[in-house]
Amino acid sequence: MTLTLNLSPELEQYLLQEANQQGLSVEAVALQLLVSSLLLKQKQTEAVNLLQSWIDDEDDQEQQETGLYLIHALDDDRLSERKLFPSELKGITW
């Protein structure tokens, strides 16, 4: 596909500088930037969909077990003896 773009002078200057720094043509740099932007958007969408599927999961028992496991793992894997989630503060600070 051939694409014609009208760039602002600032954007054109940025694109030229990037091309010079990378030793590539302006077209190659523009294509790289477009591809990386689209791939990032795709990865973000996949991450959002995954998080949403976790939110939509209605297995409350599994979520509680996972939460307790994480709390214990975070408390056990500390150099300090001070707990992040002391049981006496459950329901007060966490």
UniProtKB/TrEMBL annotation:
Highest taxon of the lineage: Bacteria
Organism: Coleofasciculus chthonoplastes PCC 7420
Protein name: Uncharacterized protein
